[in-house]
Amino acid sequence: MTENQRNDQNTKEDNKSKVESEILQDDIVLEQDNQQEKGDKESSKKEKKKKLSKEEKLEKALQEAEETIAEQKDKYLRLAAEFDNYRKRTIKEKAELILNGGEKSISSILPVIDDLERALETMKTATDVEALKEGVDLIYQKFIKILGDNGVKIIDTIGKELDTNLHDAVAVIPAPSEENKGKIVDCVQTGYTLNDKVIRHAKVVVGE
What we know:
Elements: H1 3-100, H2 103-123, H3 129-149, E1 152-154, E2 167-173, E3 184-189, E4 192-194, E5 197-200, E6 202-207
Parallel strand pairs: 2-6
Antiparallel strand pairs: 1-4, 3-6, 4-5
């Protein structure tokens, strides 16, 4: 083999090596590109999955909020209905109390009415006035006791100091004695209290 032939062969081998090197380099670059693309796809999938997870969390939170609102609304409606029933029941009870509140008191004085009816019947043929007066007095005492049992009391007057919270002075006269000056000497109309509340002032005469 001549020198020129050897040179040509070396040149061909060098070119071949160079081409193979370039092909290898291209393969490496292509492989890197593929790896990069694959990594980008994986990253995109993860990002999409992450984004979807946030949306799911928001959707779940919204659903829970709606359920809570529905539950609170139901409780509110039930409470409103119960209060309305309570209000109606209270109004009814109050109305019944106003209409029938005096039932006990009225029932307690019915025996007195019975006694008065018998006394009136007796008066038609009675000849003993003293016995009749005694019977009427007993009826009166019975009636006063029943009133007391129901919280009604007679306001004391004779010999008491004038108290404008209890008494209403309708006249002033000269005191029959020195100790009666400024005190009540007569009662024109009896006064009453109901459970310590004045329901009628006593009309009195005061000495001066």
